[in-house]
Design a protein that fits this description.
Pfam families: TACO1_YebC_N, Transcrip_reg. The chain has about 240 residues and is α+β, with helices and mostly antiparallel strands. The protein has eight helices and eight strands; from the N terminus they run H-H-H-H-E-E-H-E-E-H-E-E-H-E-H-E.
Length: about 240
């Protein structure tokens, strides 16, 4: 497969400068997940996924607890889950996932972000078909062949297992997310360098310096929007 998790690494590397924004987004996502089922990660799979992701971003316990307590308290605040698709400079592709309590506001802000930064909105399905929904889980301290053996013993399938820098990264179908984590935990591994349900591009594109700078501005503007939870794209932003 050869797919790298560069875009996830870029997001995680920049979190120190944007902790309040990231924590606020996690708070909203945790609240929504807790409201959609039982506010207990043991019985609510969606909540468990969000909490595992939050752990890798070091989201403080008080933010997690506050979001869950808000859901338990019967808050009537509701959010719609929306996905926007669009194009950046030179045909680059972008997917934007949002949670919003004002659909018109969010649509207007996302459209403006594209329009003012060299991009344009596409129709539903115009971009997503070029991405694969993927579980990405990374650990340290083991080699790829050891991880493969561990997962085989647990009867868990993976698309690919790659050694990338200091981590071993497992790429799998989204429904394998919990099974992979459980296999690791049963082997005594409880810390993950990455634990994401993401959209990985089937192919990446490289932009020239000017287009890349414009594209990075587009991504920054989209990620700064209050209602936007995730931004996925197919541009190689590594140096």
């Amino acid at each position: 497969m050869g797919r790298k998790w560069n875009n996830i690494k870029e997001k995680k590397a920049s979190k120190d400068a944007n902790t309040s924004r990231i924590y606020a987004k996690f708070g909203r996502e945790i609240y929504v997940a807790a409201k959609q089922g039982e506010p207990d990660p043991e019985s609510n799979q969606a909540l468990r996924v969000v909490l595992e992701r939050a752990k890798t971003y070091n989201v403080p316990k008080n933010i997690i607890d506050r979001a869950i307590e808000k859901a338990k308290g019967g808050s009537d605040e509701t959010y719609d889950e929306l996905r926007y698709e669009g194009f950046g400079p030179n045909g680059s592709m972008v997917i934007v996932d949002a949670l919003t309590n004002n659909v018109n506001r969010t649509a207007s802000e996302v459209r403006a972000a594209f329009g003012k930064n060299g991009g344009n909105m596409g129709v539903s399905g115009s971009v997503a078909y070029m991405f694969d929904a993927t579980a990405v889980i990374g650990i340290e301290g083991k080699a790829a062949d050891e991880v493969l053996e561990l997962l085989m013993e647990a009867d868990v399938d993976a698309r690919d297992i790659l050694e990338e820098e200091d981590s071993v990264i497992v790429y799998a179908e989204p429904e394998q997310f919990h099974a992979i984590q459980e296999a690791f935990k049963n082997a005594g591994i409880t810390e993950f360098t990455v634990a994401e349900l993401t959209m990985l591009p089937q192919t990446e594109v490289t932009l020239d310096e000017d287009a890349k700078a414009q594209f990075e501005k587009l991504i920054d503007v989209l990620e700064d929007l209050e209602d936007v939870q995730q931004v996925y794209h197919n541009v190689d932003l590594s140096e």
